[in-house]
Input
Amino acid sequence: MAEHQRHAEISGGGFAGLTAATALARMGWSVRVHERAPELRTEGAGIVVWNNSLQVIDKLGATHDLMSRSMTPPAYETRMNNVIQSQETLDGISWRTMTRSHLFETLLCAAREAGVQVLAGSEVAGATPDGKISFTNGDTAEADLIIGADGVGSAVRDSLEIPLKRERSRDGITRFLVPRRKAELQALEPDTEWDNVIDFWNLDPRVLRVLYTPANEDELYIALMSPAADADGSRVPIDLDLWTAVFPQLAPVLADAAKTPGKYYGYQTTRLESWTDGKVALIGDAAHAMCPALAQGAGAAMQNAWTLAVAATAAGAAEMPEALKEWERLERPFTDRVQDRSQQYADTRAMSQGNQFVGDSIETALYNPTDPNRHTVKA
Ligand code: 5PR
Output
């Protein structure tokens, strides 16, 4: 039977857009991705990726690439005033750390291999529920499915006038990628291997935190947290004297961080009235931007990109709006919960107590969005 090939238009060439594009293309769709930036690349420094998105990456055929330049640190350590609260080995949880550019290149390569057309410098103006997409240069196109994966300021979402709520938390973070400098760190603190993730919290007398995350053999991701109201703590380029006084054991890598301009991001959460409208679906920060505490912003984006592709592929052309609504009904609660939990952690700073990777907080990390039986209630 000669069936016509279905077509998807995707706004946004980030982790969410590339994942949805690759999944759809591998399921037989023709796909175009529009990235408004003149070059295809990612912002930011490092990232932690958990089982939920590792399962998706595997379905995209990209596991080998991903593993090539990423690592699983021996433990996730939490310190308060430099006293170790916990060293969690995360047994039974798959997780990897890496640079954001490595994750991005891996997904871009998978998209191209799957036959996705990725257009840089192509800016989407908006979309309509009946499947029309328009561009800022005046062009228009039609599709069986339109995906808004265009970030926290989503043009697709705003053109549909979907009501949203945005909540800001009091803290925020500046992120850097710097050389590992293991030998220099070991000279300062000889009994530490410096391969763990180490979450260095100081709450008293001043709220300053450094999240130390080895991303591979050579590169280290460090995230410096302070309240937005602390002008010196949130200053960029960072106030090297301040940070070194509080974290003397990190002096060599803080000195590297101080050499780059940096950008302070305030934590925030966006919740939408609806993730879909007709043939249009929203994923990633466009739909569910969250605080980074549980490191699930990109993870939830990739998880929802995959399940959306599966749901859209299973739907007949006439049923697309209902299929998208059903997808949201089934999948959204998982994301709502991780958004709530991440915001809770951000607001309470409770991660400073350590021993966090148990119970509800790891629900999303353990989720497998590629398991076809995941919504089946077991007898
Ligand atoms: N975990 C990770 C992270 O990158 C951040 C946080 C927690 C992996 C900051 O981006 O709590 O801010 C956090």
